[in-house]
Amino acid sequence: MSSAGKSATVKSSLDRFFKLTQRKTNTKTEILAGITTFLTMSYIIFVNPSILADAGIPKEAALAATIYGSVFCTLLMALWANFPVAVAPGMGLNAFFTYTVVLGAGLSWQTALGAVFISGVAFFLLTVTGVRQKIVDGVPPLLKSSISVGIGLFIAFIGLKNSGIVVSNKDTFVSLGKITETGPLLALFGLLVASYLMAKKKKGALLISILLTTVAAMITGFIDYPQTLKDVASFSLPSLSETFLAMDLKGAFAYGILSILFSFTIVELFDNLATLIGLSRKAGLADENGKIENLDRALQADAVGTMASAAMGGTVMNAYVENATGISEGGRTGLTALTAGVLFFLTLFFAPLIAFVPSVATAPILILVGALMLSEIKAIGFEDYTDVIPAFLTIILMPLTFSIAQGLAFGFISYTILKLMTGKHKDLHWMMYLISIAFIINFIWGSH
C-alpha cells in the first residue's frame, strides 16, 4: 500500500473511532487544538512538583507522578470518554494536600496520598451510583462560586508567600517582603510578563513567563546555569521508585480523615463537574435536552485517574478550564486530548531542565491562577445577608486559616444555620444538612 493509501486509512480509522465527521471536525483541527491545550496547561509540570516538594515528596518523583498521572488520565478522557479535555493535578487541591493536610495537620505525605486514593475511590462510587450529581445539585450556586473564589485567594496567597513578596511578621502576622531583593524582583518580572502575554491572548503565556523568569534567574546569578546537555534533556526517564505505592491507607484511616476526605471530595465534585459541563457545552457536545454524551465516562475517567495518581505519588486529578483554549481552536473529540497527552509524555525527556526552574518562576503563575478564579465572584448576590455572610466566610477563611477545609466548613455551616434561623429553610436542600452536620462532627472530634 502506498504512503498516501496508508495515510488515508489512518485518517479513516481516526474518523470512525473519534467520530470526527459526526462532530464536524477533522484530524488537522483536532491536533492543532491539542497543541494549544497543552501549551496553556503545561505550566502545571513546573508548578505541581514545586508544591509537592514542600510536602516532602522527592522532587524528581513528584515530577514523574505529575506527568505520568496527567498522561494516564488524559488518555482515559481521550480513548474512554472521547472528550476534548486534558487532565492534570488540580490547582488548589495540590495546595490543600501540601499546606493543609501535610504541613497544617502534620500528616506524612504517605498518609496524605492514602487520603487522595480513598477520595478517588469515593469519587468513583459516587459517580457510578449517581450520588455525585445529587450532591452537586444539593449545594447552592452561591457556595459553589464562593469555593472557587476562596481557593483562588488561597492559591494567590501561596504564590505571594513563595515569591517573597509577602512574608511572615510576628507583630502583624504578614507584611510586605523586601521587594528590592533579587527573588521578589524576579517574581514581579514573571508576573508582569505573564500578565502582559495573557492580556495579548498569547498561546502558552504562563509557560513563556516561567521560561523567561528562569532565564532571568540564571543571568542574575539567582540560580546556576545548566552545565551539560544532560542538564537539559535525557533519555533516562524520571523515576517513580520513591513514591510508587508509597501511600499509607492504614495511616489515613487511623488518623480519622473525615474533614480531609470531605474537602477533597467536595472541591473535586464541584470544580471538576462544573468544568466538564462548561467545556463540553462550549464544544457543542450537549444535545437539545442538555444531555452530554459520555459525561459519566468522563467523570469515571477522572476518578480512576485520581486513584492512579495517588498510587504514583500525585494528587487529585482535575479537568482544567484552560481546555477552553483548545476547544476554541476547534477541538471537539478525544483526538484533541490524545494530542495533549502525547505532548505531556514527551516532556519527560526534558525533566532535568525542569529541575532548574526556581520557585520565583512558578510563584507568579499561582498568583495569576488565583486572579482568574476570582471571576466567579460575579455569580454571588449581595442583597441577601444569609447569602453574603456564608460566602464571605468561605472566601476569607481559606487564605486566613491557610486551609481550604476550614473555609468550606464555615461556609456550609453558617449557610445552613442562617437559613434556618431566618425561616428560609425552603432554600436548603437535604444534602446541606448532611454536609453541615459532618463538618460540625469533625470540629468536635478535632477539638479533642
From TrEMBL:
Protein name: NCS2 family permease
Chain segments annotated as transmembrane: 31-53, 65-87, 107-129, 141-159, 179-198, 205-223, 252-270, 342-369, 389-418, 430-447
Keywords: Cell membrane, Membrane, Transmembrane, Transmembrane helix, Transport
Membrane topology: Multi-pass membrane protein
Subcellular compartments: Cell membrane
Top-level lineage group: Bacteria
Coiled-coil features, chain-numbered ranges: none
The family this protein is said to belong to: Belongs to the nucleobase:cation symporter-2 (NCS2) (TC 2.A.40) family. Azg-like subfamily.
